[in-house]
Amino acid sequence: MKTNFKNLYVFSLNFGPQHPSTHGVLRLILTLLGEIIIKADPHIGLLHRGTEKLLETKSFLRGLPYFDRLDYVSCMVQEHIYCLSIEFLKSFKVQSQVQIIRLLFSEITRILNHLMAITTHALDVGAFTPFLWAFEEREKLMNFYEIISGARMHASFFRPGGVYKSWNNLFLEKLLNFSIQFPYRILEMEALLTNNRIWKERLINIGSITKKQAISWGFSGPLLRATGVFWDLRKNQPYENYNLFNFKIPISFFGDSYDRYLIRIEEMKQSVKLINQGCLLLLALENSEIKKPISDLFKSNTNMAELISHFKFYSEGYYIKSNNMYLGIEAPKGEMGVFLAVLNNFKPYRCKIRAPGFFHINSLNSMVKGHTIADAVVIIGTQDIVFGEVDR
């Protein structure tokens, strides 16, 4: 579509959905005046799998693996919110050691996410080397996934009331060693990017947003904190035992793409501190008895009655009385929330997922307006979009 406007052409351009810089199946219809974007219309839903409706047909336990597939870069954090929701409805008490191991894997997952976000963003801008460096570190972290669950991505390790299985001191020592050497890898990436002239020119004052805009659009996570809003559910509404750990929440005030990069770098450093503290604490508690997950309480081979109970539990799952609740946690991309409504049943009547990326992508028109196509690539990269959670 072309129309003459003051000797310039206004035309529409499809950006994606099969473009590598759309970070998934995003179709972006750009209205351009020359190279300048005057409107961006994001078309989402191309990956839609009906996850929320599927969860309404599954028992509470069988619904757990669907959360791994939402934000498939942050698998265990997605499991975490679902488990916490069921524990709240069932009033499960989770032992302190189990809370700490969950915290460790949530922070491992945060590092996995930010390594992917920063280095694929750098790849969009033209820097290839950080991508190779980060994936070497990601392999080490995914080894920890595999050791504890047998899977490198979709682990299903968190379970309502506990975790899939116990751990040993050798695992904790390996993780502790990683937390000691990983900060040097972060410094290497910073040395290549943070003060790089090309990197700064491509990111500074690109996709800037104000505090008021961020709040009104429903932003959370690094995008919100980059505008100067101190909001992190690990501090503001602590869950598990985050309130017992010493860590800081980085914020900035300019709200541009460069700030969002810096915040993710600093968040990885804070995650390393949390992992270090958690490993040392668990090693100090090595002689304490570790409670099994709730699901393991039904496992027995001693008599037929207990075997029947075990069979009924895994075929029917948990029974929850009529209730509804919303719970949110601080996922790597922002506030990940789950609303569950139950009507005296073994499965949810309604399950609604709050995905942070959904709010971020809907602000894209305002963020890219007045910028060039090349800047749109940068802005999409700093939003850290994964369409598994956006399209659901």
Helix content: 40-55%
CATH fold-level name = Cytochrome-c3 Hydrogenase, chain B
Number of domains: 1
Q: Assign the CATH class.
A: Mainly Alpha
Spell the H/E element sequence. EEEEHHHHHEEHHHHHHHEEEHHHH
Mean pLDDT: 85
Q: Assign an overall shape.
A: globular
The number of helices is 16
Calculate Rg over CA atoms: 22 Å
- In CATH terms, the superfamily is Cytochrome-c3 Hydrogenase, chain B
Please outline the major beta sheet.
Answer: 4 strands, antiparallel
Low-confidence stretches: none
What is the number of E strands?
9
Q: Strand sequence of the main sheet, in spatial order?
A: 1-2-3-4
Cα-to-Cα separation, first versus last residue: 32 Å
Structural features, described:
This protein is α+β, with helices and mostly antiparallel strands. It has a single domain (51-291, 318-391), classed as Cytochrome-c3 Hydrogenase, chain B (Orthogonal Bundle). Helices cover 49% and strands 14% of the residues. It is built from 16 helices and nine strands. The protein has helices at residues 51-55, 64-68, 75-90, 96-125, 129-149, 169-193, 197-203, 211-216, 222-225, 233-236, 257-284, 304-316, 356-361, 364-368, 373-383, 387-391, and strands at residues 2-5, 8-15, 27-33, 36-43, 158-159, 162-163, 323-331, 334-342, 350-354. The chain has a four-stranded antiparallel beta sheet. Strands 7-8-9 form a three-stranded antiparallel beta sheet. Helix 5 runs antiparallel to helix 6 and helix 6 (169-193) runs antiparallel to helix 11 (257-284). The longest helix has 30 residues, at 96-125. It is globular and about 80 Å long. The model has no long low-confidence stretch (mean pLDDT 85).
